Amino acid sequence: LVSPSHRLAGGNPENINNQCKTGQSIQLEISTPQREAFFSEFSLWTRASSKNETFQAYVSAVKEVLETRYK
């Protein structure tokens, strides 16, 4: 974590994450190997249709944290 005044703190108003209605968001940095693990076929054209159980588990975990923390 960085201080709120740090240039990487995510406070830039031009960042798309800061332009939502609530002004709150999260931005997850996911490594390429982790992203590859989310799909049975990791190409630009096949990713959308090849999401696997790892992807679903990750999405569920993120949703659970957000629903618990930000209700």
UniProtKB/TrEMBL annotation:
Can you name one GO molecular function term for this protein? hydrolase activity
Keywords attached to this entry: Hydrolase
- List every stretch annotated Disordered: 1-21
The signal peptide, as residue positions, is none
One family from Pfam that matches here is: Gamma_PGA_hydro
Protein name, per record: Poly-gamma-glutamate hydrolase family protein
Q: Which organism is it from?
A: Bacillus paralicheniformis
